[in-house]
Amino acid sequence: MSGAPEARILCVTPNPALDRTLDVPDLRIGDTARARGARVAAGGKGVNVARGLAALGSGSRGRPLCMGPLGGASGRILAGLAEAEGLDAAWTWCEVETRTCVILVDGAAGRATVVNEPGPRLATEDWTRLCGDVLERAKGALEICVSGSVPPGVAAGGLADLGAALVASGHAPWIDSSGPALAGVLSTRGVRLKINRDEASEALGRTLRGVSDCAESARRLLERGPAAVVMTLGAEGAVLASPAGCWHASAPPVETVSPVGSGDALLAGLVAALTSGRDEPEALRWGVAAGTASAVAGGGARFSRDQFDALLVRVRVDAREERG
Predict the structure, then answer these.
(1) What angle do helix axes 45-56 and 280-297 make, rounded to 10 degrees?
(2) Does 12 reside within a domain?
(3) What confidence tens digit (pLDDT) does each residue in 220-257 have?
(4) Domain count of the chain?
(5) What is the biggest distance separating any 2 CA atoms in the chain, rounded to whole angstroms?
(6) In CATH, what number is assigned to the domain containing residue 176?
(7) Global pTM?
């Protein structure tokens, strides 16, 4: 007699990509350059979150499950690469050609240039099928992360509608997006929002500067409806605002190889901590440690548990506001 099905952490990527990363020393736009190395991998923000969760291993009670729309030759390659990495998946197959994105990394300078294709135009019925697949898998999910842009063809409110449906099903999904899709999510009650400083500045119509300004702005975003707001601040770490309070975690000084995917790794660390019973300040500390480990290891949420552990002890959290 089989036991209950394993609870999973759904890592949904609305717009997956086949990522080609080129190591290009001393990169100068407009010049001819030779890559010192190349890597092709399954990509997209949700895939990065799953990769980070897998790296943390036993830090989380649930294994990640990648979801998203795939199609065409590039989609089949992406699915194969994810499987080869050991990432479990339940893709929604569509009559499209999955996009390819190029990441140019100058490791010595600690810079990365990302060229993102917009993605294939997704038919309304394909988006509906994807949402249905996510809602079906959500029935037994431990946590749900929806990360990344939405592909062309999806209505601006499509991501907010998915978030609201997940909330209605009893979940508080983490949503990380940008542009018009993010605008709709900001007022969706019950979701949890992961946002970076630039996106928050655009949403609030003003430039956010120091940590105190960002912490106050996270609290203001919380008033719009989300159940929690995490704002990433690059080298300054991140802030977390929830009904229980507001905290800042400072990132330790490190030599960055590539910041690409650090925000996704941060979300992975945060979710891993929360699913293992840790409180919000400690979860924020885990998130910043994971994001920093990704930047040191070369981006894309590719880091080891040893790298994470070494950085975790160097992350400090201070309360900006706590409520009883």
Answers:
(1) 100
(2) yes
(3) 999 999 999 999 999 999 999 999 999 999 999 999 88
(4) 1
(5) 64
(6) 3.40.1190.20
(7) 0.93
